Amino acid sequence: TCGAPMITPPPLPEGYLTTNFTLVELACKCGCGTLPGPGFLTKLQQLRDDFGKPMQITSGARCAAHNMKVASTGPNGPHVVVVWRSSSGQGAVDVLIHGPNAFELVAVAMNLRQWWGFGLKQHGPLHNRFIHIDNIWNSVSVPRPRIWTYEGDV
Predict the structure, then answer these.
(1) What is the pLDDT of residues 1-41, one digit of tens each?
(2) Which of 75, 99, 128, 130 is at 20 to 30 A from 122, Cα to Cα?
(3) Predicted TM-score of the model (pTM)
(4) Which helix (H) or strand (E) holds 119?
């Protein structure tokens, strides 16, 4: 050791998983308690810090059963928290965002070079527009890097 005092960050406010993200917004919406792993939380907070603006998360971690109900990606979709993915800091979020801020968020995430999946829904009512961002590694079943759009009413 160098003799310098160790600096301990202040504790997070109750209900927060990081400086800017809460347990409520990142936990599986079915109520099972599934949460993203600590490595993913660190990367997500870095993205928020670099973006410099609020990021309203509409979907964070999901259990396999909930993902089967709300997505077409099955029990292993990018939002699903599984041990091997969680231990390597992988995961996904959907961010409620539109217009120039949406473009800027994607640009910041791409510049960090640790986010590989971008799903864009930027049509329809403003309260339904979002960007899916994930850092799932490339595989045969989940090719990355990848950008896609969501179908819907225009």
Answers:
(1) 567 777 777 888 999 999 999 999 999 999 999 999 999 99
(2) 75
(3) 0.88
(4) strand 117-121
